[in-house]
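Ex. 9. Protein: SEC-C motif-containing protein.
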Amino acid sequence: MGKKTRTRAAAATTDGENPRRPCPCGSGKRYKACHGAGDDVIVIRPFEGLTSEPDLVAMREFLPSATAPLPVRDGAPATLASVLPGASAALVRVNGEILLGMQVQTRSGDLAADLAAALTWARSAEPGSSLPVVGPSLRSSERLQDLLDPDAHLDLTVHKDFAWWLADDGEPGAEAAAMLERANSVILPTEQVEGKGVRAAYWVDTGSKAHLRWVRPEPEDRLMAALARLSERGELELSADSRYAGSFRAHGLLVPVWDLDQEMHSSEWSEPAASFAARLEETLEGLDATPLTVDEHRARDVLAGKQITLR
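Predicted structure tokens for SEC-C motif-containing protein:
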């Protein structure tokens, strides 16, 4: 590996990786077909240190249409988006507005560095320009954490469609209109669930089922211990109209998932989610004083069997 490779506490380097083993980024691909294809650093938890980390993970992985003003330290305006037309990394509208895309095609192992590079590119780009992908020549040692207010939450808006793709400068052309129609045709109804103690929880209707996906900021071991204790107590469900389905890992965080009664409106889950948040917080606080029992360890093993890794 070249000397230019960055070393970070949150990163796992590719030195010594067996090319036939699964890539440590969690993609499920062999290392040689993923990050082993080039000189790169794999950052397992790219948004660590930011209060907005759970929402950033949600925007990257499963929110279909969402935007949020980016809380940059210097105050220069930019908008973060779940996905941009053509899955672009960035675009600058004719009026100078900057948009950065989260769901892009990239082989980089550090999403935070890619976003920082895309923002730097956009600030000097001509209005009307777009950046399809962040290439190696654009990356530097700067990361998203270097540019954002670390304590700021994202003021995130979940949209019902992709109408916000269109600038307010006239009717879209035939190609843009067709792209918008295709994107809108596959969007899944998604809503943010809000309540006391609830953050980064999202209701989604997949057509056959409704789910609540809740990105949690706690370390996985601690969160799993708390979920196991709640499971053993029969308190893991949000309500009688829900069922804990399992969890998935995404960019270093665990995302518990519940199956929900599809007939209930998304807003009806605010109170059950708030009640669960209070139970979980109390359980997390009690872990240090009372270790898991034998039965709770068994419950943890059962829950661990319901996990998958996205990244």
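Check your answer against this statement. Helices lie at 53-61, 111-124, 144-147, 174-185, 220-232, 270-286, 294-304.
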